Amino acid sequence: MNDAWAAQNIQVIRSLMERSALYRRALAPVSLAVGALGLVAGITGWWADIDTARGFALLWAAVAVAAFLVAFVVMRRQAIQASEPFWSPPARRVAQAMLPAMFGGLIAAVVVGLPAWRDPLHAWWLPGIWMLLFGAATHAAGFFMPRGIKLVAWAFAALGAVCLLYVNARMHAAGMPALRLAHLLMGAVFGGLHLLYGIYLALTEQRSDCA
Question: Which residues contact 118 (CB under 8 A, 6 or more apart)?
């Protein structure tokens, strides 16, 4: 049983290494699409002046679901074009690595955003929490994907830490700005970082194709 388990793990690791280029190609369109979605959502939340904790949590939960669906469609198409099974053992390992942190983000949205009695400014805790947890999820996936994604993960985590420290200081001092500005923060961080990473991947992929 142990020998079979070890052999299976070795096969999964070998398969992950072989598919690194496939994952890298898939990440470029996924990052660009998710980045554009994040920017649009941030501007929409700011423009519509969604200023309740529940509204903030529900909007960005919907954006997360939409981003997941976009990633699913793009990566499934990539797998079909490469004649690869989509829900393969390596894909399951990546999903399992990301799942705990993503689940934590969902719980944070429920606890902070959904109770009707929440003060709207309580929702300012969510961007920092989500950035930290998304950074953790991305870093976990980075063990199976291109190395550059770990730098993106640390960028999310660092920005999340700064955001939480800022919120903690302002909550006890001058108070937080209007919640509509948190939409712009979410759009700038989640949309902006994904767009930058997608552009980087697209440009470097073109250079490698020309070489």
Answer: 53, 54, 112
